[in-house]
Each structure stands twice: as C-alpha cells, then as structure tokens.
C-alpha cells in the first residue's frame, strides 16, 4: 500500500523552518553590523554565508551519519544498508555544493566585492591558490567531492570506514578558517570545534537516516536503534565536552555571556539540554516500547525523532550564526605578555588547561572499562581488582598530564614539554598495560554475527594489527626510536607547542609508541619465539635506555638549554614571555628525560626478570590454573 507523502514533506518543512528561523533570529543583529562594513557585497553574501554554512553542516551530517550507521549498526548486503549509502552519496553531492558556495562567498566577503562582479574571476583563482583561507576552502571541496564519489562505490566495511574517516577530515579545513583557529594572543580551539562538528554529524545524520529507513528495517529496527543509541550517547558526551571547552575559550570571561556571541551560545547550550532529554526518552521509553509493542512503537519513535530533529535543526542554525559572530576573545586586544616564574611541583596541580579531546577519551576509557567489568561479572566471570586499579590510575595520570599544569607550561618550558612526552611515553603505559584492556574487551565484547562492526570487530580492525606488528620488542623499540626522532628533529616540535592539532599528534604518537613498547616487554614467553625471549626483551630495554641517554644528552646541548644567543630560536618559536634575567636559568629537559627513563626502564627490566624467575620456580607451571589466571596470562601475552 502506498503511503501519502504529505506527512514526510510536512515534517521536512518543519525541520527546515526551525533551522532557518533560528539562524535568522541569531544572526540578524550581526548581519546589520556586517552590512555597514561590507557595503559592496550586498545581502546575498552577508546572508548567503551563514545559510551556506547551515547547509554545509546539515549535508555533512547527512553524509557522515549514514556512513557511521552503516558501519556500526546496519547489516551489510541488506536493503537498508544500500539505501544508507545512497543517502550518504546524495548528501555528499549537496555537501560539495555547499563547500563550493562557501568558497565563493568567503572570497567576496573578504574582498568586499559584489557577486559575479567584473574581474572577480581572476582574483578568485588567486584566492584559491595563494591565500590560506582559499586553499583550505578548495581542499574542503575536493575532499567532499571525493567522499560523494566513494559513497556510490563502496560496499565493504573497511572501505566504508576509510570513507567515513575521509569525510571527517572534510570538517577540518573550514575549522582552521574560523575564529577557532585563534591568533596572536588568542587560544586555539580548532580540535574542539572539529570534535564538536563530527559528533553533531554522527548524532544528527544517524537519527535522520533511522527515520528514513524505519520502514525498510522492519523487525531489525529495535536492534539498529539500540546500537545507534550507544553512538548517540557518545556523541552527546563529545558535544557537551567540546562545546564547553570551545565556549570557555571563546568567551574568555563571564562578561562575554552578555555579548551577542554569548547569548547565542547560551541558547545553543539550552537546546543541547533539551536534546539530552530526548535521548533519555529514547533509551528509557522508546527502546522498551519497540521491544514490547513494535507496531505502535514505530509511529511513536518517528514522531519523537522528528521533534528531536527539529530541535537539532534549530541548534544547527544557531551554530551557523555562531560561526559568523566574532567571539569576545577575538574582538578584545591580545593580553599583554606576563612574566612567568619557573613552576614548582604544586603548580602542576594548581594550573589547568582543559583539553576537550583528552577529557572525552579519558571519560570513555573509564566508562568502557567499567562497563566491560560489569558485563563480565553479569556472566559469572571475575576480573582482578588490581588490574582495574592499574587502569584507573593510568587514566587519572593521563588526564592530569593532558589537562593539568604540564599541559599549560609545556607551551613555554622545554623541560615541561619533555616531561609531558616522557610521562605519556614511559610512565602512563606502565599503568595502562597491566590493566589489560584488550583482554577485558575480548572477554566482554561478543562478536557480532550479522556482519556489522561492534567493539570486538573495531578492535580487530584497528588496534590488533598494530599490536601484532609490534609484538617483538625490537620492533617496538624501533618504533619508539622513530617517534622520538619525529618529536624532536622534525617541525612537529614547533607545531606541537603552537597548535592543538600538533599537540594532539604529539600526545597520541608518544602514548601509542610507549604502550606498544611496554606491552612487548611485558609479554611473557609462551611460544619460545625470538621476539619474546627474556634475553630479547632485556636487550630491547637496554637499547631503549641507550636511546634515551643519547636523546637526553642531545637535549642538554640544544640551544634552548644554554644562556646564549642560540637560545633565541626556542624563545621565538613558543613565545616564552620571560624577562632577561631568567635566561640564565638552565631548564633540566635532558635530566628530566634521564630520570623518568631510568625509573621506568628499571621497572620494566624488573618485571622481565620476575617473570623469568617465576617460570623457573618448580611447580608453578604444573598446577591447574583458574580461568581468571589464564586470563592474566592472556593479558600479558596480548596487550596493550
């Protein structure tokens, strides 16, 4: 029986109207201000930019959301799976058009020229090739066009994962063009903005796709909605954390709440709270109804989802207006440089610089580990308390390093910079690896049978190949050497102290390489392989000790460690605002590397020797072991 298109069209019109109305109400004041400055562009450019930005956000959600839903929730080779990819492809075409429109409108806004004015075409080409904002706009258009083409051709889960990852990178260039990228004296919040946009795309696009596919899914709707609910919960958490971080960075002080930017931000925060209540209704009410009375529950789910999408559209309209409204920190002059003293131990706990990405990752790490323990306990299993203690302690230290005083001072002190890297590379892994997270995931996460990608499949696709490749200690040590070279002898050293993207790249590289090395050293010899012998692991520890020794000596000889003219390069690079008398103080970067490396490598060698002695003890290998003890051995032989 054919269904009338009246209701779907009315729902789409209502959702679109909510987005445009919110945009008009939030941006009308700023549009009037821009009209006074951009007197030659006309209303088409002044209003075209935020409208194009709204379309860009909605189309990005319509592309990323269906891809993520197809990857994690929809059985492949089904009708719903194919339709989701078609939705992503069509949205990708619209996304490309919106990105191209933003490029044209941004050029005319910066040049203060009316649309299609005489001679503007040649200048526009120069804008795309010679100006950073133009190159980023062109890159966005290329990425979105590539994603749109891939959506119509991909079929495998691996190809969809690559396409979704590429689609996420399409959000980055325009974030670098926005005021989130900061400037002289203003903080950089680009990672928070990209994280915010990606989470919103998964949440909005996934829900819209579910509404469109609810009839196609049939009896599978309950399963897909339950899986999407987990994605929505993670997206809500990422949205809340990144939104608060970006808002605090942009507002500067509480007085900023009274500005136009602050009022839009408050309204957007209120809508996020409403969306949180919608999410709670879905999890507590809709899922129960879909399980008990699936026929009537589908209509209820659709009505609630449309209302939620209308609120999401209003929030997207506010976001588009917010992107075109100067925040208080941009309109204010840059703060005057202040003289900083050398920090003490207490300063590491008194100074804070919250990082949205690492707050989110730490929160997810705690939540998933606790959920895995609870699921294992519900099945009658047991997880050692000391392993949970190691994991939570490691996550707590990771949170402190990435958000505390070291995060603040590493932008000014080379010693704090080195200490941050060494804690991430050497100390945090010594706490995380005994927690055996991959073993817990293997025991708690059940493999899916319908071809979709759950937790077990995601680990098998991402982390396990890396762990297996670096299973031999000499391979992990070589990887550690390569990362140290990249961190200190490439532009990443300067980039990590200047920008959020550089810092995140540095932190992730340091943490991953350290975890791989710690896991390879802690691996017990179970197969007699060449990479897992006691001698091989001790040799790897010794080689890494020599590596740290050489790097520490090199740091002690660097220009930024000596009170002479060669030190000027680091001062210019990171803008260290100290008075001249402090230049005579030698920062102990090399000593910090030696001390941390010596302590952690001594512990690693002691663990290797303890394992060897335990295996040589008579009777230890012949007694019958419990399931949890076998899990312990499995953890030591397959982590991180």
Task: Explain this structure.
By secondary structure, the protein is an all-alpha fold. Helices cover 75% and strands 0% of the residues. It has 27 helices and no strands. Helix 21 runs parallel beside helix 24 and helix 22 (492-498) crosses helix 23 (500-522). The chain is globular and about 80 Å long.
Number of helices: 27
pLDDT < 50 stretches: 333-340, 524-531, 559-587, 620-640
Calculate Rg over CA atoms: 27 Å
**Overall 3D shape:** globular
Total DSSP E strands: 0
Largest β sheet strand count, sense and barrel closure: none
Q: What's the overall average pLDDT, rounded?
A: 80
Structural class determined from secondary elements: mainly alpha
User: How much helicity do the residues have?
Assistant: over 70%
Summarize the structure.
This protein is an all-alpha fold.
Name a few traits of the molecule.
mainly alpha; disordered C terminus
Fold topology:
Blueprint: H1 6-37, H2 43-72, H3 79-111, H4 120-130, H5 132-151, H6 157-169, H7 172-177, H8 190-217, H9 221-251, H10 260-292, H11 294-323, H12 328-331, H13 347-350, H14 356-378, H15 385-403, H16 405-409, H17 414-432, H18 437-444, H19 455-461, H20 463-469, H21 473-488, H22 492-498, H23 500-522, H24 534-556, H25 568-574, H26 589-616, H27 627-638
Helix pairs in contact: 1-2, 1-11, 2-3, 2-6, 2-8, 2-11, 3-4, 3-5, 3-8, 4-5, 5-6, 8-9, 8-11, 9-10, 9-14, 10-11, 14-15, 14-18, 15-17, 17-23, 17-26, 18-27, 21-23, 21-24, 22-23, 24-26
């Amino acid at each position: 029986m054919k269904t009338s298109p009246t209701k779907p069209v009315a729902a789409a019109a209502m959702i679109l109207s909510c987005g445009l109305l919110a945009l008009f109400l939030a941006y009308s004041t700023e549009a009037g201000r821009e009209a006074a400055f951009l007197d030659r562009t006309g209303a088409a450019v002044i209003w075209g930019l935020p409208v194009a930005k709204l379309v860009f956000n909605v189309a990005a959600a319509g592309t990323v959301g269906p891809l993520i839903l197809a990857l994690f929730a929809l059985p492949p080779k089904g009708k719903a799976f194919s339709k989701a990819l078609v939705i992503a492809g069509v949205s990708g075409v619209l996304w490309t058009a919106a990105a191209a429109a933003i490029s044209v409108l941004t050029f005319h806004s910066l040049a203060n020229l009316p649309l299609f004015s005489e001679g503007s075409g040649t200048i526009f080409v120069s804008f795309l090739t010679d100006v950073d904002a133009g190159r980023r706009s062109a890159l966005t258009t290329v990425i979105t066009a590539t994603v749109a083409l891939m959506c119509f051709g991909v079929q495998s889960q691996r190809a969809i994962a690559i396409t979704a990852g590429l689609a996420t990178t399409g959000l980055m260039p325009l974030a670098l063009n926005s005021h989130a990228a900061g400037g002289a004296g203003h903080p950089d919040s680009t990672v928070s903005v990209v994280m915010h946009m990606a989470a919103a795309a998964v949440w909005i696009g996934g829900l819209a796709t579910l509404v469109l596919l609810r009839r196609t899914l049939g009896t599978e709707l309950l399963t897909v909605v339950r899986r999407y609910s987990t994605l929505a919960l993670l997206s809500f958490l990422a949205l809340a954390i990144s939104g608060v971080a970006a808002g605090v960075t942009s507002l500067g002080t509480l007085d900023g709440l009274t500005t136009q930017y602050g009022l839009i931000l408050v309204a957007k925060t209120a809508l996020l709270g409403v969306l949180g209540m919608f999410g709670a209704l879905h999890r507590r009410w809709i899922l129960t109804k879909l399980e008990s009375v699936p026929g009537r529950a589908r209509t209820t789910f659709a009505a609630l989802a449309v209302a939620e999408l209308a609120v999401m559209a209003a929030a997207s309209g506010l976001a588009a207006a917010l992107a075109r409204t100067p925040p208080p920190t941009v309109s204010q002059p840059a703060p005057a440089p202040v003289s900083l003293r050398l920090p003490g131990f207490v300063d590491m706990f008194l100074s804070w610089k919250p990082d949205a990405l690492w707050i989110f990752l730490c929160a997810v790490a705690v939540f998933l580990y606790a959920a895995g323990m609870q699921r294992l306990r519900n099945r009658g299993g047991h997880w050692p308390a000391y392993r949970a203690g190691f994991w939570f302690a490691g996550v707590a230290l990771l949170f402190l390093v990435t958000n505390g005083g070291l995060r603040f001072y590493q932008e000014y002190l080379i010693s704090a910079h080195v200490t941050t890297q060494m804690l991430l590379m050497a100390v945090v892994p010594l706490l995380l690896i005994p927690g055996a997270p991959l073993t817990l995931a293997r025991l708690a996460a059940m493999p899916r049978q319908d071809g979709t990608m759950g937790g077990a499949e995601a680990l098998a696709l991402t982390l396990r190949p890396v762990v297996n490749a670096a299973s031999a200690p000499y391979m992990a040590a070589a990887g550690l050497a390569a990362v140290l070279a990249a961190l200190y002898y490439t532009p990443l050293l300067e980039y990590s102290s200047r920008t959020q993207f550089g810092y995140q790249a540095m932190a992730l590289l340091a943490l991953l390489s350290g975890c791989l090395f710690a896991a390879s050293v802690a691996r017990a010899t179970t197969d007699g392989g060449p990479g897992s012998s006691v001698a091989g692991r001790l040799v790897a520890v010794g080689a890494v000790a020599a590596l740290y020794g050489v790097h520490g000596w090199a740091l002690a000889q660097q220009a930024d460690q000596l009170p002479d003219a060669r030190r000027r390069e680091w001062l210019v690079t990171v803008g260290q605002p100290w008075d001249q008398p402090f230049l005579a103080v030698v920062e102990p970067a090399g000593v910090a590397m030696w001390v941390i490396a010596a302590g952690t490598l001594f512990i690693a060698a002691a663990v290797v020797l303890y394992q060897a002695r335990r295996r040589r003890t008579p009777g230890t290998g012949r007694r019958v072991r419990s399931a949890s003890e076998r899990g312990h051995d499995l953890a030591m032989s397959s982590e991180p």
